Amino acid sequence: MKTLPTILTLDAGGTNLVFSALKEDQEIADTITLPTHADDLPACLDNIIRGFTNLKDQVGFFDAISFGFPGPADYPQGIIGKLPNFPAFDRPVPLKHILQKEFNVPVYINNDANLFAAGEARSGYLPELNRSLKELGSSRVYHNLIGITLGTGFGCGIVIDGQMMIGDNSSGAEIHNTINKYHPAWNAEESVSTRAIIREYRNHCSSDPGPQTPENIYRIACGQTVGNQEAALQSFELFGQALGASLVNIVTLVDGITVIGGGLTGAWDLFAGAMFREINRPYESASGQTQDRLSFRLFNLEDPQEMATFAAGDPIPVRVPDTSLVLHYDRLPRSGVARSKHGVSRSTALGAYAFALRQLNRSV
Q1: What is the pLDDT of residue 15?
Q2: Do domains 7-110 and 116-342 have the same CATH topology?
Q3: Nearest CA among 278, 270, 269 for reference residue 241
């Protein structure tokens, strides 16, 4: 029986570095959390090495290190470029080779959103969806996935038939730089991020509301704390519309299941309605005629009724002339949007593990 490798992983956030060790998709050591020191390169690198060293002390032998890190970067070479949200990385840093020299094992670094998508495609929502469809009697099997991360930034990863789309410049699926629905001179992230929610809340208040966080604005919108409830609701409405406008453009190119993760998904009840209204908004031709925005229907897979319709489809028999052969044609081309069930950290770790397995020429 083939022995599966032990892989050390890292979730690199702007505040904390979270380290874990995986074998057969399961954590086999205590998680280690250290401060990122995002504005101090030597301190940041020291903590990255310290975190992996602490894991090594727990697990003993391990086969590789694999993790996600923000870009821009040359991921195949493991060189991290100048990062807008990591001031410490103010010049190219050969992080892969620093770690390979320290630990003498293969090191694989990828975009964190790509690894999130890979984790959801291999061990997360996509296989769970396909199992559910089979249990419901559907013959449909989905192979492609778009992973969206919502938080400080607006991230995206794409997996096509099991293969992560990295791109020739390690810049595949850079959704944050797509056009902004409200401000064509801005990128999409300016309206799909934590700062967008805070900005729009402040803009819709008649007086200065003081320091705010998305969590507090959510509580205001839900009537759980004092504040301008109408402004709070409007901030999430605009966020949902901007997100929907970006999603519909990615989905029409990829034709895959979309899985959304990140801290802001906790406000799903406030922005999802606006997101789907934007997705379903028809186009208008130059002559004034309306037409569907997508070539297929995009379902809210968080809604049980929509999930039932999604699973059922609309199949009809099609007979082949002069034969007894009967084919089945589904008149409802469709895909769907859902929230991550594992969360970004867990799915990213699973994606990092899966990537390392492929690189080490081993499979589950």
Answers
A1: 82
A2: yes
A3: 278
How does DSSP classify residue 161? Answer: T
pLDDT digits (tens, 9 = 90+) for 197-230: 999 999 999 999 999 999 999 999 999 999 999 9
- The pLDDT tens digits of the residues spanning 16-54 come to 898 999 999 899 999 999 999 999 999 999 999 999 999
Q: Which fold has domain 7-110?
A: Nucleotidyltransferase; domain 5 (3.30.420)
CA distance 272 to 243: 9
274, two tokens: 């606006």
For 49, 157, 259, the CA distances from 113, given in Å and listed in that order, are 22, 5, 11
Query: The tokens of 7 are what?
Result: 């892989």
Any idea where the domains of the chain sit in the sequence?
Answer: 7-110, 116-342
Length of the chain: 364
CA distance to 129, 177, 247, 263, per residue, from 156 (Å)? 20, 11, 10, 15
Cβ(252)–Cβ(297) below 8 Å: no
pLDDT at 363: 45
- CATH code that applies to domain 116-342: 3.30.420.40
